Structures are given as C-alpha cells and as structure tokens.
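[job 4471] stage=fold_predict status=RUNNING
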Amino acid sequence: MSESEVTETVETIDTTEETPEVVEKSSPEQLPDDHPLVRALASQKALNKELKAKAAKLDEIENAQKTELQKAIERAEAAEKRASEAEVTAAGMKRTQYGMDKGLPRDLAELLTAADDEGLDAQIQKLLPHVTPKAPEPKVAKGDLRSGVTGSGGSTADPKERAANAIRQLFDR
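[job 4471] inference complete, writing structure tokens
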C-alpha cells in the first residue's frame, strides 16, 4: 500500500462519519394548567398521596393486630405455666399426704420426691426407721377443766364466791 491509498482511505472514512449534534438542554416547556397531561399528572399525584396514607394506616392496623396476637400468645403461655405449677403443687400435696398416712411427720413427708406409689413406699420405708414415734398426748376429762382462777383451797360452786376469793388472794399476799 502506498501513501496515497492510505490517505484516501482515511479521507473516505472521515467523510462518511457524521458528527452527532450536541443538544443543549433548555428548561422544559411549561404546559397550561388546563392541558390534559397536566390534569392527569395532578390527579396521579393526588391518588398517590391518598394511597400512601392508606398504606400507612394499613401498616398501623397490621402492627396493632400483631400486638394483639402477641398479647394473646403471652396470655396462653402464662395460663399454661400456671396450670403446670398447679399440677406440680397438687402432686406435691398428694405425696405429702401419702407419706403422712404412712406414718411420716409432715416435715419429712414434704421431702418425698417419687412419682408413683411404689417409689413413695420405698422412700417411706427408708425414712421410717429414723422417725421416733410420738408419745400419745394425755387426755384430760372435760369435767376437770375449769375456767378462771382456782385456789389451792376447797372449791366452791358459786362463781361469785370464787371470784371474791380470787380477788382476796391477789390483794392479801
């Protein structure tokens, strides 16, 4: 290739290329207020504003419902916990009563932990040898009981006379 061919080729290329026009942006053309596009845009903006308000209200309601649902779940969990504690308490009272019926004092019967009667019997049999039997309480005949102050002297049947004797004993020391 000679220099003249290269020059022609370059020139050809240069002439075939068009330079793009540079368009300067100018301020947008203002349409009149009664133009259909302006009215459509205004109604779209109003609709968007209304829909945003409704969406915010819907979000608020959903959050409130979640809160109510959460409260209901917490109440159900609390009720289950109370029921479980009541079952444990009832089982403990049953074990205590069973141990007392078998001869254990209350403080030892409250320490029983077995879940069934066989286990409770085994625990009771281990504890019973360490329990000292209580001496029977002396029985007092009802006729021997008297209210008021009694002196060491003879007893009188008249309550006024007994009261007078008691007062004399207090002041005669």
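[job 4471] summary: Residues 151 and 166 are 7 Å apart (CA to CA).
[job 4471] exit 0
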